[in-house]
UniProtKB/TrEMBL annotation:
Pfam families: DASH_Spc19. The lineage of its organism: Eukaryota, Fungi, Dikarya, Ascomycota, Pezizomycotina. GO terms for cellular component: DASH complex; spindle microtubule. Belongs to the DASH complex SPC19 family. Residues 72-99, 140-167 form a coiled coil. Its main location: nucleus. PANTHER family: DASH COMPLEX SUBUNIT SPC19. It is found in: Chromosome, Centromere, Kinetochore; Cytoplasm, Cytoskeleton, Spindle; Nucleus. This is DASH complex subunit SPC19. Keywords: Centromere, Chromosome, Coiled coil, Cytoplasm, Cytoskeleton, Kinetochore, Nucleus. One of its GO terms (biological process) is attachment of spindle microtubules to kinetochore. Residues 107-131 are annotated as: Disordered.
Amino acid sequence: MNALSGCVASLTLSTETLQTTIQVLDAAVADYPRLAKVLSSHRHFELVSQSDLQTAQSLLSSTIAPEADRLLKETEKHIHRLELKERKLIADAELLETRIANSLKKSGVPGGSSGQKTAAAAAIPAASGNEDEAMNVEKLKKLKAQRQRLAYAVERLELEKRQKEMQLKKNMSYGA
């Protein structure tokens, strides 16, 4: 039994050593989840390589550039059309003013097409009481109002014409 008691003592010592080792290991491993969380690295921002960035920029540029060029050309065409329309309207207005001035000269109203002369012509009939001149001034006012109405009508008709042309172009482009 003596031999057996030495084995039991050795086994008891080994068990105690294992118990203390387990306690030390538990103390060391107890902090492991916190350490794993602290030491883990999260990628909050995705890093993109320079070549990927240049590829994306060139793709975006090749997509946007043709559309931007098309829009610029379309805008330039529209501006050119508006400039032509402005020139035409100015020429039409000058022509109408010339016609009115000629009709006033033929009818005998002093003045002409300038605003100061017509204002003076309007003041003369009131002061002198000449009915013929007053009628001519009234006729001038009516002609100016008629000219404005006709100018608006022409502008409206031109707009309708452009809209119909655009609709026709759209219909023809869908049909082709």
